[in-house]
């Protein structure tokens, strides 16, 4: 329903506003607000649950990594100790071999000198 008035050479149009049954009524705003609040609360609760889940995942992953790191550290320490023990044994064996070589070299020199005198 349009009403047009002429006022001082200016056209003014007055438009009657109709509200549709589901548009901008107080009941509609109340329902919309209630639904929005319910949805936001549900989203907040899902967020809290997700944070809890993520916290549990990170805690478990951290614990697993710590356990694995401890096992690796223990294995590495054992390996280093074994390697060090083997190094010490090899050094001792090398000393024995050098001593034997020295003795053998002395015996050889004595034999060589003896041959020179006996010849």
TrEMBL record:
Principal location: cytoplasm
InterPro entries, alphabetized: Tektin-like, Tektins
Keywords: Cell projection, Cilium, Coiled coil, Cytoplasm, Flagellum
Keyword Coiled coil found: yes
GO biological process, one term: cilium movement involved in cell motility
Cellular component terms (Gene Ontology): axoneme; microtubule cytoskeleton; nucleus
Coiled coil spans: none
Compartment list: Cytoplasm, Cytoskeleton, Cilium axoneme
UniProt record similarity statement: Belongs to the tektin family.
PANTHER family: TEKTIN (PTHR19960), TEKTIN-4 (PTHR19960:SF12)
Protein name stated in the entry: Tektin
């Amino acid at each position: 329903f349009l009403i047009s008035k002429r006022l001082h050479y200016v056209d003014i149009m007055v438009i009657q506003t109709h509200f549709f049954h589901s548009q901008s009524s107080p009941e509609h705003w109340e329902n919309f607000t209630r639904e929005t609040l319910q949805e936001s609360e549900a989203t907040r609760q899902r967020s809290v649950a997700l944070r809890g889940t993520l916290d549990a995942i990170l805690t478990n992953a951290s614990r697993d990594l710590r356990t694995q790191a401890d096992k690796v550290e223990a294995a590495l320490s054992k390996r280093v100790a074994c390697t060090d023990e083997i190094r010490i044994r090899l050094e001792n064996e090398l000393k024995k071999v050098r001593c034997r070589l020295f003795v053998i070299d002395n015996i050889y020199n004595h034999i060589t000198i003896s041959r020179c005198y006996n010849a």
